[in-house]
Design brief:
Layout (H helix, E strand, L loop, with lengths): L16 H5 L7 H13 L3 H6 L11 H10 E13 L6 E12 L2 E14 L2 E9 L31
Antiparallel strand pairs: 1-2, 2-3, 3-4
Length: 160
């Protein structure tokens, strides 16, 4: 029994495999997102294509996507947030981070994916990359505690 690549902790046979094989349909946008990630891991590009909304399939590079999936070392999926996308909803959004290595270089794909439900089936419609949050640096005064956590005043520590 192998654990599902989507990170749910369930067995693949009980989690994403029935959705990918067509034995059952995804009941939520998040379930489809997890199955699509597992399809990338298993290089099952037909499923990725078929679960892309028909209005958004133009320009899909089947061969290039397959090559990328085959040459990536998949390391995990993190669901950051979901908005709607339940069994009674028509639309949903899933913010996720897919971690993988490409030619030994660790990478992250952080996206806010949008899904649409048509005739009872969920489809990926489009997504946008999530930009990193800016680093907030506050000004440290000479007599303030040092930001490195040493317990010394800034002027006696990193401010020398």
């Amino acid at each position: 029994m192998s654990t599902c690549p989507c990170g749910s902790g369930a067995a693949f046979a009980d989690c994403c495999e029935p959705v990918i094989s067509g034995a059952q349909t995804a009941t939520t946008a998040e379930q489809l997102m997890r199955a699509r990630y597992s399809a990338y891991v298993g290089v099952q590009m037909d499923f990725v294509f078929e679960t892309t909304h028909p209005d958004h399939r133009q320009g899909y590079d089947h061969a290039g996507t397959k090559e990328w999936a085959e040459n990536s070392e998949w390391q995990g999926l993190e669901i950051v947030n979901t908005l709607k996308g339940g069994p009674a909803d028509a639309t949903g959004e899933v913010e996720f981070i897919a971690r993988f290595s490409e030619k030994g270089v660790p990478r992250e794909h952080h996206e806010n994916a949008r899904f649409t439900r048509n005739d009872g089936r969920w489809y990926f419609s489009d997504g946008s990359m999530v930009k990193p949050k800016p680093i907030h640096v506050s000004k440290v005064g000479r007599n303030d505690p040092c930001t490195c956590g040493s317990g010394l005043k800034y002027k006696k520590c990193c401010g020398k």
